[in-house]
Structures are given as C-alpha cells and as structure tokens.
C-alpha cells in the first residue's frame, strides 16, 4: 500500500493494512513512544494505536517533541 | 497618542506599509509582549520586537550568560558572560530603541507565578528550552485566555505554532503530556545549528506583531516545521482535539501545576 | 520622508476629504504623487506655485487605506 508520510509517498510492500504500532515499526520511526500521530487530519489517542488500521492512500503525520530554544 | 518627529523617522518604513501606517505603529507602541526565555529564540525575538517599537517587553529568564550560549543567542555578547540574561537582553533592547520599556524578570517561571506574569501582557512568546515550562506556558495561556506562540528547536529542525485559546488547537491538542525527563534530547546534549533559532524566533516575533496590529492570518491551526538541512518548510493542519486535557470538551486540567521536571532540564543535566 | 509625513496626515482624513501638500521639485515631487497613487489615493491637482515649489492636492476616497 501507498501512504503519504510527512508529505512524502512511502510504499509498504506485501500488506494492505497495518495498525499504527505496526506502521511505526515498519517505517522505522525514531522514538515511537513519544511521537504524536495524525491520521488523515485527526490526532490519534495513544491507546488507539493498536486498534487503528492504516490503509492504502492514508495521510500520516508524525509529530515530534522539540524542546530547545532557551539555553 | 501621536508620533513624535523622531519616531516618524525611526518607524518610517512601517508607516509606509499599507497594513501598518501611523495608526499601526501606535498600536505597536501600545503593545505589551512577554518573552519567556532569553536564549536562542528569545534573542532574535527581543531584538526585533524592540526594534519594531513594541512599547513594553517583558523578558523572563533566571539564567546567566554562558560562553556556550554565544554561538546562537545573538542578543548576548562576549563581555556579558556571567551576567543575568535578562539584564544583558534588556541593555541591548534599550540600546536599539529607547522607546521600549523593558521589564526584566530574573526568575524561573512556575505554576505559582506564571498567571501573574501573563496577565499584564497582550501576547506571550514561548522561547524556553524544557517541556515542563512549555506545557506550563500552554496551560496558563489557555486557562488565562492569552494568545501565544510556541517555538521549539533541535539539531537542524524547528517548529512553531500560534495558539488562540479556545479558538485554535493548543500545544496539548498535539502533545497531550510532557515526555518523561531525559526521553527527548535537549540542545545541550544533541546540539543545534546556531542560525536555527533565528529562523523560528523571527517567525514568532512576526506573529506577535501581526497579533498586535490585527492583520493577516496567524499561524493558528497549523504547525509549521522547518528543516535546515533540506531547507524545507512544512505546514501540518492541526484541528482542535476534543479530548485535549486543557481545552477539550471535558478538560481534566483546570488549574496550573508544575510538572515533576519543572526545574530546568539542561541545568540539571549539566550539574 | 515627505511621503511618510503626507501619509500620516492622510490617515487622519475621511473618504472624500482632500489634503494640500507643498512639495519641492526633485525627489519629493517625483515620489509623493506616484506613491500616493500606488497606495490608493487620487491626485486631484498638481500645479507649480512658485520657484521650485509645487502644490499637490490628494484625495482620500472609499477604499483608500485607513
């Protein structure tokens, strides 16, 4: 299936559906514990990662904490 | 209020602009902005807002200028090392523009004092370096109904979002709670390219100016991300989250409290 | 700077009002009428008064900058 991930097209071969947890692993997302996931414009609850399925054509945004700025 | 002859000259490039003019410049001079953090982001923010003639600038930071700051915190100079950052920053702003009244607040922001701080200002800017304070600023601004600008930087990446409480998504609509301490690297551990806070900070300063003028479209409902390596900006639409703990339909966070790592993270790590 | 000062005066007017400005030849005379038109005002009159001084009458109209 083809997904749009942070604006780029990503192809995941050999499957037509994965849940969010599996998608994070498959796409080798850094620090999956602390990433916020927006699926087709809606921010997902972390508890729903295991039960939310991603399918062909979906648009995903992985949003990361960025804390610097002061010191 | 009417502009003095020297102010007409100083702000002539603003006055020429259709969306600003003399009336807009008077709004800036009457404007009050609080900058929390006089570091990488706070430096360009304070310099540009001061130069622009924002009449009252609060600058809050308890820290002292350190030699490692000077690679990016352009408001502090080598002879300022050891001086309180707010004193150093206030000196520069006053030197650029004597029209500006600067209120230096040399203390850490906490759940106890933040509401009192923000109440006196029209617009708040988060230029802090730790999540405990970032979340506290968000919560205080949402509960106190103050518009504010979030900014964050790390390595070659930056992000910024403007929040109009109860109208647009807040920081907690995206990130419901602070990450555990040490989970996310800080600039002092992971590094940051020195020009990065200049890019993000000047965007935050632009938002403050637009808000005071009442012009244009604020960066609300859109998280702007920037990557310096690829020189790409991206805008991610963010809707208000009905389950947001502070601005959702059934908020669980109705009073301010310090997070367990409310002390400055970098400070703890370097001691 | 001449246009900056002119613009500050124009801001005080309401639509339909006119402003009379005395300008010296050279940069002010070449800049002020041009910029006034660019910014949405109408130049009603531009006449030579004496020596190198010109009189410009600028009108604020509906849709001119506030």
Please tell me about this protein's structure.
The complex is a heterotrimer of chains A (71), B (271) and C (66). Chain A has 71 residues and is mostly beta strands. Chain A has one domain: Beta-grasp domain (Ubiquitin-like (UB roll), Roll). Helices cover 10% and strands 35% of the residues of chain A. In chain A, the strands form two sheets. In chain A, strands 2-1-7-4-5 form a five-stranded mixed beta sheet, with no helix packed on it. A two-stranded antiparallel sheet of chain A has the order 3-6. In chain A, β4 and β5 form a beta hairpin. The longest helix of chain A has 7 residues, at 20-26. With 271 residues, chain B is an alpha/beta fold. Chain B contains eleven helices and eight strands. Chain B has helices at 5-10, 12-15, 21-30, 42-52, 85-96, 114-119, 131-143, 171-174, 187-190, 196-213, 265-270; strands at 32-36, 56-60, 101-105, 123-126, 148-154, 157-163, 222-227, 232-237. Chain B has an eight-stranded mixed beta sheet with strand order 3-2-1-4-5-6-7-8, sandwiched between helices. In chain B, α4 (42-52) packs parallel to α5. Chain B is globular. Chain C has one domain: Translation Initiation Factor IF3 (2-Layer Sandwich), CATH 3.30.110. Chain C contains two helices and three strands. Chain C has helices at residues 2-11, 27-38; strands at residues 18-24, 42-50, 53-59. In chain C, a hairpin with a 2-residue loop joins β2 and β3 (53-59). In chain C, α1 runs parallel beside α2. Chain C starts with a helix and ends in a 7-residue tail after the last strand. The model of chain C has no long low-confidence stretch (mean pLDDT 92).
